[in-house]
Known about the structure:
The structure is a homodimer of 315-residue chains. By secondary structure, chain A is an alpha+beta fold. Chain A has 2 domains: 3-137, CATH 3.30.1330.10; 146-307, PurM-like C-terminal domain (Phosphoribosyl-aminoimidazole Synthetase, Chain A, domain 2). In chain A, 30% of the residues lie in helices and 25% in strands. Chain A has helices at residues 3-11, 59-77, 96-112, 163-173, 182-185, 191-197, 211-222, 244-251, 267-275; strands at 21-23, 30-32, 40-48, 80-90, 116-124, 129-137, 154-158, 203-206, 225-229, 258-262, 281-288, 293-296, 304-307. The longest helix of chain A is centred in the N-terminal third of the chain and has 19 residues, at 59-77. The radius of gyration of chain A is 20 Å and the shape is globular. The two termini of chain A are 36 Å apart. Chains A and B meet through α1, β2, β3, α2 and β4 of A and α1, β2, β3, α2 and β4 of B. β2 of chain A pairs antiparallel with β3 (40-48) of chain B, so a sheet runs across the interface.
Amino acid sequence: MTEGQAIARFLRRFPERGAGLVVGPGDDCAVLAPRAGTVLCATTDCVREGVHFGPGFSPEDVGHKALAVNLSDLAAMGAQPRFFLAAVELRPPARAGVVDGLARGMAALAKRHGCLLAGGNFSRGPGLAVTITALGELGEGTALLRSGLSPGDLLAVTGRLGAAALGLARLRAGHAPRSATLAQRRPEPRVAAGLAARGIATAAMDLSDGLLLDLGRMARASGCGATLWRDALPIARGLPARPDGLTLALSGGEDYELLLGVRARDWPRLQRRIAATGTDVAAIGVATARRGLRLAAHRDAVTARPLPATGFSHF
Amino acid sequence: MTEGQAIARFLRRFPERGAGLVVGPGDDCAVLAPRAGTVLCATTDCVREGVHFGPGFSPEDVGHKALAVNLSDLAAMGAQPRFFLAAVELRPPARAGVVDGLARGMAALAKRHGCLLAGGNFSRGPGLAVTITALGELGEGTALLRSGLSPGDLLAVTGRLGAAALGLARLRAGHAPRSATLAQRRPEPRVAAGLAARGIATAAMDLSDGLLLDLGRMARASGCGATLWRDALPIARGLPARPDGLTLALSGGEDYELLLGVRARDWPRLQRRIAATGTDVAAIGVATARRGLRLAAHRDAVTARPLPATGFSHF
């Protein structure tokens, strides 16, 4: 396959037209008409063979995950996904099965979220890699930021924690059934929950590098600390209760769940709105004036022990 | 250096604020407020060690070129650059000199074009690579497209052709003086010329894969053919006259000049407007109803020989 043939093959899986897409793939740039008066959110993230995924990932998984991690960032701002661009690197020779699989995984997720492929780029590289840039609309509203947490705010998290890290451990060990690694291969971006949290939550971010590292970032950005309640943490099913399950849930990474801050009086309303989208959400702790992270046994515990802000760093 | 330290070091070179940048790097997404009523252009392109550059490129060159190839795509649509996101891959350990150089080269070019760093991502990879997504504004106007060429339109090109390919050949041979490889390492996106061509040119694209391949794409997208005039081609200084100089100019690639179509009666006005930006521009041929590309000795030649549409493909 030539570069042109690979591009044509890839594009077959995506709609050529859609609201706001004035010029789609094929020219020097895409031309986009966002809704009048809207503010845009933009994010970019890459997944690379040998770094972000390895054996056990199908091309379809890679296509899904590359888009999912970007939609998760849009979800964390409370934005509605609209457009994305995909820069794809393939190790020559370009194989039809890889191109088709990538496109299928990406197109299925894009369709579910009404997000249009606007453009992209194919080039050769040392392995399979996809860098996506996603654009979402906030309308005239205000984005959910990491820096909005105040002492006394409740901390909440969608879904369950640790399943992606357990899936990664199983993939590395080999011979895992496909269902046991789904959370690692096919994270579901919490777009509906993010939209539901806009105007209620005080702060939000997505959990990509582990709860402790990411909560540490939110707390620092907000100038406060946080105490987590061990018994309230929604640890994924199938994880050993502790200590390993707790460690995976606190530091495992790649859950792509939303971490939210909310004033205590607004928590019941936030919980109802998120539950109405079909997403589980749980209160897991509280923001504190005292800096640093701590772990208490439960909500009413008198003591709490300091936690290290540990998680994933690329270097 | 940790990932966080590398990011902090990189960001020091870029302004934190600017018109339309509501939230810059540091949160899950950037938040952008394009001008009211504007249509946006978006493009993504990557440069990778061993594929798009090799020995002889400084980190500063890589930072410049990664942004330049994207701004060149915006220029080809007639868009005003506004924002960009940069996904950077480094081979561990992350070195301060590489991060600083990348940022310096990118920031200097971004500043000249009023283009703000809005966000990005750092991760490890098998070598240095930068994938940039650039966003530009068209206002309420219409983008310049590849598909607008009509038979009888004159073809024009900015600058000179072949210098980047000659620079690449010199880098590969080793020991070239820095000045002899400048066109390869530091292409200058023709942003002002693209803005000047809006509303006059019938078609535009940037020359990344060589004049023949790119002109072939424009002609096909427009449903026509083209005849080039050999004596009118602005071959870069320092290239042997022919046959090698002509080959480099026709098929060398990476010139990042603009290829334009224009109605013959509008050519003097287009020429004046582009010249007023300080950019050379030359008429190099004419679009034809007959498909395919041909080369004539000069504008008034009676005969023309067929040309292959040859240039660069990644696979």
